[in-house]
Fold this protein.
Amino acid sequence: MATTADFRNGLCIEYNGKPCAIVWFQHVKPGKGGAFVKTKLRNLETGRILENTYTAGEKIEVIRIERRPYQFLYKDDGGFHFMHNETFEQIDLLAELVDNPDLLKEGQGVEMMIHTDDNDRVLTCELPPFVELEVTYAEPGVRGDTASSTVMKRATLETGAEIMIPTFVNEGEKIKIDTRERKYAERVKS
């Protein structure tokens, strides 16, 4: 057990039975009445930001969350299958827990956030900030629009994902994609 005096950004606590991380907090000592702590918490299961106020000195349940490296193996009817990089333990996840599942390529490294106090329950599965994928289909560009990167066209990637890319990118080229925003970042130099 901890108290509000132990608050720091990134501390993982249990709030309303859900695992949350402190994003922001502020100790407030008004002229009248008791001190309190205003917080913004991120629900680690859904990503939603919640606001809550604690009275100063209130007891808080601290939880242990670990980030572990895994490698994506394959997808089938049972879900997505991953292997831990160090122990070679294999686990499978449902699509709801995987961030941008259509950008996953076999052999891709991911990072899982695991609630160790709750029987090693997986909370999230995150791709790296950027992934490199090959364009398997791209709509033809309009003649004369190739000089600017602001004109975009629809493209299908080797994993089946569809994103918008600049008109100067062609089929067969490898591109770097920002997984946080699902946007084209740049062409990969061969």
